[in-house]
C-alpha cells in the first residue's frame, strides 16, 4: 500500500475511533498530502505525527495506556536527534515541538513532559524521533522523519511512522552542547536510540538504548542546564551520571569536560578529558572534531569559529597518554569536507591523519608503530554542505578506530 493510501486508511480509522470513543478533539477529512519528494519539512512532520496518532487510535491496548497518560496529564519524550550525527539540532527541536503540539491537539488533556528521572519512573510510554538525510529515486536530497512510541516496560514499539521531505531550508545547526563538543557523540547508547526510532510495530527497541534510560534522563537534565548556560548545575548532573561506573556514557563524560572548561577550571577539565579518552578509546567511539583550515593540514586559527584551538595540545596529550596505557593499535582516519576533487580530498585527508599521527608520536614514540594513518576524503561526510566553515566542522574530523596490531 502506498504511503498516501496507508495514511488515508489510518485517518479513516482514526475518525471512526474518535466518533465512537471520543479520543480526538476533532475529526475532519484532511486534504491530500503531497508526495514525499514535494513535502516541506513541516508537512512531513504533520504527516508522520498524524500517522502515529491514527495507529494509537486503532490499537486498543496502546490507547488504554495512552488514556492512562491522559489521566495523569503527562506524556514523556526523549529529545529527538539527528540520525547522521547523533546531535540535537534546530531541526530536531522543531520536530519535537511540532510533534508535541500535534499530539496535544489530538488529546486536549495531555501534558507533554520533559525526559527526566521523576517522570520516567511513572511513565509507561516513551516517544522518540530522528531526522536523517536521504535521497529520492532520482538522487534528489531528502530528509526522513522517524517517530516511534515505545512501551517502556516491555521495550516494544507499539506505534511508528515516517515521512520524507525535500531537503530545503532546514536548519541543521547544533544546539549549544553539541556545538561546543570536541567529540562526535555516537556511542552505543546514541546509536541504539537511532535504531529504536526506526523500528517497526511489534519490534523490540534496541537494548543499548532502553536499558540505560534512567541514566539517559539524568544526562538530558544536565544537557539542558548546559544549553541554558547553567554550567555549575550541568557539571553536578553530569558528574552524577558518571558515578554509575557500570554505565559510563560518552555524552556525560564529554559534558563534564565541557562544563569544567566553561567554569574556567582547566586542570579539572584535563582530568575529565582523560577520563573520556579512557572510555572512548577501548570502546572504539573516538571521533575528534579538529577544525582544519580549508585545503591545508594546519588547524584553523580563527578564535571565533574555532574556540577550542587552545585546547588541542591538551587533547592530543591525553589521547597519546591513553593510547599508550591501553596498548591497542589504532587507525587514524582523516576526513575532509566536500569541496574539490575526490583525489585531492583523499590525499588531503591522509595528510591530516599523518599530521595527527606525528604529533602523537612526539608525545610517545611507541605510538608511531602502533598507529596507521588513513585518508577517507569526503566519502563519509556527515554534513556534506561543503561550506568549509564551522557548519560542516564534523566533516573535517579525525577518527580513531581500533585495529589489529601488525
Automatic annotation (TrEMBL):
Keyword annotations for this protein, in alphabetical order, are:
Membrane, Signal
Q: Does the keyword Transmembrane helix apply?
A: no
Signal peptide limits: 1-26
GO CC, alphabetical: membrane
User: Which InterPro entries does this one have?
Assistant: OmpA-like, OmpA-like_sf
Residues annotated as domain OmpA-like: 284-406
Would you tell me the protein name for this molecule? Answer: OmpA family protein
Amino acid at each position: 500500500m502506498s504511503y498516501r493510501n496507508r495514511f488515508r486508511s489510518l485517518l479513516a480509522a482514526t475518525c471512526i475511533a474518535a466518533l465512537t470513543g471520543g479520543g480526538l478533539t476533532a475529526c475532519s477529512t484532511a486534504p491530500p498530502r503531497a508526495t514525499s519528494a514535494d513535502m516541506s519539512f513541516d508537512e512531513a512532520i504533520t504527516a508522520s505525527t498524524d500517522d502515529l496518532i491514527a495507529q494509537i487510535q486503532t490499537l486498543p491496548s496502546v490507547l488504554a495506556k495512552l488514556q492512562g497518560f491522559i489521566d495523569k496529564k503527562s506524556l514523556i519524550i526523549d529529545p529527538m536527534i539527528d540520525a547522521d550525527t547523533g546531535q540535537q539540532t534546530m531541526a530536531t527541536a522543531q520536530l519535537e515541538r511540532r510533534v508535541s503540539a500535534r499530539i496535544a491537539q489530538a488529546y486536549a488533556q495531555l501534558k507533554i513532559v520533559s525526559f527526566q528521572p521523576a517522570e520516567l519512573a511513572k511513565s509507561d510510554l516513551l516517544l522518540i524521533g530522528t531526522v536523517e538525510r536521504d535521497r529520492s529515486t532520482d538522487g534528489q536530497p531528502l530528509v526522513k522523519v522517524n517517530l516511534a512510541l515505545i512501551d517502556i516496560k516491555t521495550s516494544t514499539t507499539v506505534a511508528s511512522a515516517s515521512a520524507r521531505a525535500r531537503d530545503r531550508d532546514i536548519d541543521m545547526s547544533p544546539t549549544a552542547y553539541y556545538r561546543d563538543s570536541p567529540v562526535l557523540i555516537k556511542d552505543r547508547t546514541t546509536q541504539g536510540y537511532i535504531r529504536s526510532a526506526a523500528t517497526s510495530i511489534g519490534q523490540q527497541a534496541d537494548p543499548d538504548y532502553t536499558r540505560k534510560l534512567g541514566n539517559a534522563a539524568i544526562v538530558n537534565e544536565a544537557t539542558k542546564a548546559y544549553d541554558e548556560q547553567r554550567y555549575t548545575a550541568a557539571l553536578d548532573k553530569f558528574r552524577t551520571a558518571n558515578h554509575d561506573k557500570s554505565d559510563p556514557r560518552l555524552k556525560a563524560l564529554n559534558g563534564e569536560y565541557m562544563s569544567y572548561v566553561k567554569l574556567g577550571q582547566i586542570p579539572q577539565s584535563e582530568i575529565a578529558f582523560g577520563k573520556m579518552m579512557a572510555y572512548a578509546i577501548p570502546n572504539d567511539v573516538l571521533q575528534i572534531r579538529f577544525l582544519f583550515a580549508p585545503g591545508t593540514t594546519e588547524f584553523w586559527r580563527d578564535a571565533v569559529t574555532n574556540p577550542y584551538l587552545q585546547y588541542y595540545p591538551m587533547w592530543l596529550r591525553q589521547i597519546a597518554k591513553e593510547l599508550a596505557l591501553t596498548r591497542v593499535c589504532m587507525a587514524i582516519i582523516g576526513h575532509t569536507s566536500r569541496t574539490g576533487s575526490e583525489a585531492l580530498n583523499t590525499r588531503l585527508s591522509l595528510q591530516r591523519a599523518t599530521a595527527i599521527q606525528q604529533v602523537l608520536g612526539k608525545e610517545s614514540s611507541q605510538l608511531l608503530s602502533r598507529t596507521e594513518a588513513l585518508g577517507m576524503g569526503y566519502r563519509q561526510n556527515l554534513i556534506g554542505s561543503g561550506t568549509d566553515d564551522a557548519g560542516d566542522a564534523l566533516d573535517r574530523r579525525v577518527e580513531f578506530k581500533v585495529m589489529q596490531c601488525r
